[in-house]
Design goal:
single chain; about 260 residues; alpha/beta; eight-stranded mixed β-sheet; 9 helices
Length: about 260
């Protein structure tokens, strides 16, 4: 896995720079993920990119990757981020790494303070799959992805989602996840079949999170669930709809981080 740090060269007040951590999809190159970092760099964020160029899903469960993220965050908030604003942008299977990270910082109490530093999460094409839905997702991939993935890759899908649904999914809908959520999905996406279940469980478990409504927005200890539906394919929303995607990220930043002047 590759970790690359990108600093916004046009933002003068680096001591207060917020941080966006982009967790890439399997097989996503550094070049591709850099396009996502540009969305945040334009708004004054610095970015940490994590990408994996081959499809070895088991690596998304390695605790050493979570530890690398933790070490980077600790160093960053010490030197670069006195405002302590951290956002995660998870692409596809990157959400699995995020759930593993959440488990890691809760299991290791010396890092549990990081939970309070997270101010927002973007889930793009994320397989937010519980135990009830993971087999259906795997079957969808098996039926509709002939020629795209090898048999070994499809086996990884099965193993990855089964393990995630059993061990990590509860950390994505935990009541202590008090931050804003932005879910990007599509009816053409085969792996987001349980997205509505995820949204319902997140709101049920965390009473401080409500569906976003522009007519009711307030900042009184309320966190919002913002959903955007595209018609493009899995992990192709930015590529297919670059302006609309950028506008959506800008809206998320403006509404929930009061960050329009960064």
């Amino acid at each position: 896995m590759i970790l690359k740090y990108l600093e916004n060269p046009n933002y003068s007040n680096q001591e207060n720079s917020p941080l966006s951590i982009i967790l890439g999809f399997a097989g996503g190159s550094e070049k591709l993920l850099t396009n996502y970092s540009k969305l945040w760099l334009k708004r004054g964020f610095n970015c940490l990119i994590l990408c994996q160029n081959n499809i070895e899903f088991s690596s998304y469960f390695y605790t050493d990757y979570s530890l690398k993220i933790v070490n980077f965050i600790e160093n960053y908030i010490k030197n670069k981020n006195k405002n302590q604003i951290i956002c995660f942008h998870s692409l596809s299977i990157g959400a699995t790494l995020f759930s593993c990270f959440l488990k890691y910082i809760q299991d290791n109490k010396q890092y549990s303070y990081i939970i309070k530093l997270i101010k927002g999460t973007v889930y793009d094409s994320a397989p937010l799959i519980n135990e009830k839905h993971y087999l259906c997702a795997v079957n969808n991939i098996n039926q509709h992805s002939i020629g795209i993935y090898t048999e070994k890759s499809l086996q990884y899908f099965n193993e990855c989602w089964k393990y995630q649904s059993e061990h990590f999914y509860p950390y994505l809908i935990s009541p202590i996840n008090k931050w804003h959520h932005f879910v990007i999905t599509s009816p053409n996406d085969l792996v987001t079949i349980s997205i509505d279940t995820f949204l319902e469980q997140l709101i049920t478990n965390n009473k401080s999170i409500i569906p976003f409504s522009e007519n009711e927005i307030n900042n009184n200890n309320q966190y919002y669930l913002y959903k955007k539906v595209f018609n493009s394919d899995h992990c192709c929303h930015l590529l297919t709809n670059p302006k609309e995607y950028q506008d959506s990220i800008n809206k998320f930043i403006d509404l929930f981080f009061l960050n329009s002047k960064l």
